[in-house]
Structures are given as structure tokens and as C-alpha cells.
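Working notes for the structural subgroup meeting. M.R. asked for a predicted model of this chain before we commit to crystallization trials. I am recording the input and output together here so anyone reviewing the notebook later can reproduce the run.

Input as submitted:
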Amino acid sequence: MNKKKTFIISGLILLAAAVLVAVVFLNEPTAQRESATRETAMLVDVILVERGSYRPVIRTTGTVEPVREISLSPRVSGEIVRRAGVFDPGQSVRAGTLLLKVDDADYQNTYALRKGDLEEARANLTLEKGRQDVARRDFEQSELTLSDERKALVLREPQLKTAEAAVMAAESALDQAALDLQRTSVVAPFDALILERNVDVGSLVSPGQELGRFGGNRKFLGCRCSAPVQA
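Returned structure, recorded in C-alpha cell form:
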């Protein structure tokens, strides 16, 4: 009797479960397919086009380098006694601007000596021309017949040429002394930007020594870019 009741109860439970599952499936909602895209109005700005000339702005990174760059050196030796205030890195100078002054006392003395040598040589030439005139008059009065070589010696032609050569040498020496005196003033060779200065008042300099570095400014400046240009 107990087994029969158990079977009946089990059958009722299974039947109830089957009915419940059937009801769930019959009442399941149906999915509705909708469009994945939605039409929306686009926002735009309207700009009136105007004709004209425009300059683009370019932004970039790089290293600015002068196309023209030199190392300035003195032409004479001596002690720097004066330095211009503009002779400093970062300053711009015009061509011919005085930058440094080398002590010119020795060069002034040399110029004075060379000037005296020239005056002495010219005086000797004048004396020798007088002696030659005397020798010519004596020769003409003697009515001697001599070879060209001996006649030149009698007329003191070699002595005259020596005196003339001494004058030329003295003139060249004076010109060189004047040039050295002028070179005691160190000036800017062209319109430039001072990149570096290596001397100051009291420094002893000599030809070939680097006084500083100069780069051409204005249209001489160029740029070597180290990164892509972005406009």
C-alpha cells in the first residue's frame, strides 16, 4: 500500500512539473529586432570663404647655426689695454666696430724710428745726387775717353742706385710700421653676432691666437632643423 501511494505521489509531482514547464515555454516573450543605427542630424559650421594672402605659421625644433662663422685673431702681439663693452657673447656688432686695443707704445716707437730712417735715406740720396753732379762736371772738363763701365764708376752711378734702393727700403719699412700700428686696433670684420670671447684687458696675445668666435647675423643666419617641421 505504501509503494502504491509513493508511485501516485511521484507521478503527480512529475505531471505538475511537466505542466509548469509547458506553461513557461508557452508564455515566453518574443524578442523584437530593432535597427542598430540611428539617424541623427550632423552639426556643421558655415564659414564664408574670402580670397587673400596668408602667411603660414611653422613650428619646429632645431639648432640655429650661422652660415658664416670665423675665429678672430690678432695680426700683432702685445697686451690688451682696452676692450669694448659690446665685445661679449650674445652682442651684435657692426662691421668696423672697435673691439680690442693692443698696447701700441712699441709700435709707435717703431713707426717713429722707421720715419727717421726714411728721412735719413732721402737725405743721403740728395747728397749722392749732388756728388754725382760734381763728378759729371769733373768728367766733362777732363775730356777723358773711358769705357762705359769705368765711366759709370766715375759718375758714381752705383752709389746713386744704392742710395735710391735705401730710400725704397726705408719707405717699405715705414709702411709696414704704419700697418702694424693700425693693426693694434682689432675691429669687427663684418656685421656679426659674438658667439664667444676668450680674452680680456691684461691678456697677452700673439698672431694666430683666438680672440673669439663670430657668426654672421641678419641674412647670414640659417637653421638646421633636428625635428620634423610641423605647420
